Amino acid sequence: MAELNLAVIGGDGIGPEVTEQALRVLRKVLGSRVITLTETEYDLGARRWHKTGETLTDADIDALRDHDAILLGAIGDPSVPSGILERELLLRLRFSLDHYVNLRPSILYPGVPSPLANPDEIDFVVVREGTEGLYCGNGGAVRVGTEHEIATEVSVNTAFGVRRLVRYAFELAMTREHKHVTLVHKHNVLVHAGHLWRRTVEEIGAEYPEVTTDYLHIDAATIFLVTEPSRFDVIVTDNLFGDIITDEAGAITGGVGLAASANLNPDGAAPSMFEPVHGSAPDIAGENVADPIAAIASTVLLLRYVGQAEAAEDVQRAISAHMTMRAEAAAAGDPYRVTTTGVGDDVLSVL
Amino acid sequence: MAELNLAVIGGDGIGPEVTEQALRVLRKVLGSRVITLTETEYDLGARRWHKTGETLTDADIDALRDHDAILLGAIGDPSVPSGILERELLLRLRFSLDHYVNLRPSILYPGVPSPLANPDEIDFVVVREGTEGLYCGNGGAVRVGTEHEIATEVSVNTAFGVRRLVRYAFELAMTREHKHVTLVHKHNVLVHAGHLWRRTVEEIGAEYPEVTTDYLHIDAATIFLVTEPSRFDVIVTDNLFGDIITDEAGAITGGVGLAASANLNPDGAAPSMFEPVHGSAPDIAGENVADPIAAIASTVLLLRYVGQAEAAEDVQRAISAHMTMRAEAAAAGDPYRVTTTGVGDDVLSVL
Ligand SMILES: CC(C)[C@H](C(=O)O)[C@@H](O)C(=O)O
Ligand SMILES: CC(C)[C@H](C(=O)O)[C@@H](O)C(=O)O
Prior knowledge:
2 copies of one chain form a homodimer. By secondary structure, chain A is of the alpha/beta class. In chain A, 42% of the residues lie in helices and 21% in strands. In chain A, the strands form 2 sheets. Chain A has a 10-stranded mixed beta sheet with strand order 2-1-3-12-11-4-5-10-8-9, with helices on both faces. A two-stranded antiparallel sheet of chain A has the order 6-7. In chain A, helix 1 (15-31) crosses helix 9 (293-305), helix 1 packs parallel to helix 11 and helix 5 (159-174) packs across helix 6.
């Protein structure tokens, strides 16, 4: 690889500032490998919507398709009615670029404070479906505002969509030490979708005899994340359940401020998109206090995805070293003070 | 009240044994108040299904309607295909008796070990909708077993259903110290249902100026349950989100083995049903090791509901005293050993 042609969507709130730190890291690891980083910024989010009424045009999508990867900060602003930017911009990106794997690793770095009393070792990955389920926008309402209003939301699940995701989860499990896949669903209530998911895990699982599997209802999964998170290795689940457990997973590993994610099109038919799990946090935007670790950690996933495994490991090591430094400072009674640029400086200096 | 005409459904797994301890407690507190307790057992669950193929007949439902209240142990057994007992028995009970309020208090008793490092004070109630949402059984599948399979699940939300629940939540908040209602939903994705829920909370909230309100997406709610559970007072939410957060809430307050619940028909048009949040735990059934506290705590809700507030407080005090005793034993390095009958004996002896 001689060039990485990157689309950058800073987005709303703290998005642009954490993305800038992620870019500094990318510039450095790629620069030292003589890889040209081309950055093209896309003005998407609340500002653009207020100015033009546009969220994401067909022309935007066409332009984004021409990149090797997309780096996204965060989308969402209280000045825009709920659902508009989420559905017409963020979810539209995931759906139109067919990001069917939403990959969300959860790692508790040594010494990082967890709200759990005995977190034990936490190192699992959630493989969340990204293009189906209750996120299809398949719902409606009649007699709105009257006492006879009815509002529906439809979860759509296809064999095509579930299979390709489940296969990805098993392939991923094969690369990991514990080789264990947990399906999270609610098949005792959502019997039709549940049946499809279970059957698919059984069928595809049979092709991977080295991988052990188990099943948890979503309600039980939220319990085990708190009482026994070390039991998880690879979790495979639908769009909504994945949304829910990855936030809880972020919380037990020190906060969503540390959690990275990748929206993958594993077939490479369109560029994949890398973003922190956290939102735009408009209350602290522009104050240089947002933790950019989640954004920087998202570049690890990005670098792996574009075939720069060594650069990815360099960044991962720098993050780990940085988190160890934070833990040591806390242990010494002199807690590290997070500033967005300061964390960027520190990670760069370790690199 | 001279008589309490109770229907008893022990059900599956540990259901019958924990229910027996709850009944001993009821017999004692009612006996000492010269109230006759009439217990009628209903054979419902896996055994009946295997024997007769029946889950819950119209005749069963008619008979159950004639009681003042229903005490339920647990439903569910691995020998019955997933979904049958859950949907045709447990959910059918909730739906046909119009148990639209599923009330689930979460209290962390002093000294009870929580998986959280700093649980702080936890004392909130989840008001979960019980007769709509994704629990309607409104879904289906086509081309099952082929690569073209499509499975859907539909969440149905009505103004009628949401309003009566939200009103209940505000009335409940008025009886509590903090008078605070949190709506949990996902209105940035489930826009139609979300809009209905939000509007309803706004409209009904306006009638309760003393009650403060806020809103959390379900994913954020799972975070705050772990990082700041003391922020919650009354949570109002739909059927599925309520299922998920009450299990997580059980986990942070010492386990679902302690968590009680009530399926209420607040209008009194049909009897309400009281059950532990935990399931049938078939792996430990019949071994006298299941903690009956959740079942006993469900009688507190039952006694309140049938107008026996004093008896309810007696049982609540006995549970609290018992939990303090456990905490002291643990602190003294001699942890209390839970046996189903032993806990029953101990609670009775405090009563
Ligand atoms: C903003 C929202 C639409 C989004 C989601 O629900 O997927 C977010 O919560 C996430 O997890 O990336
Ligand atoms: C057994 C199952 C159908 C039930 C539910 O989902 O409501 C249970 O999890 C509960 O919370 O009471």
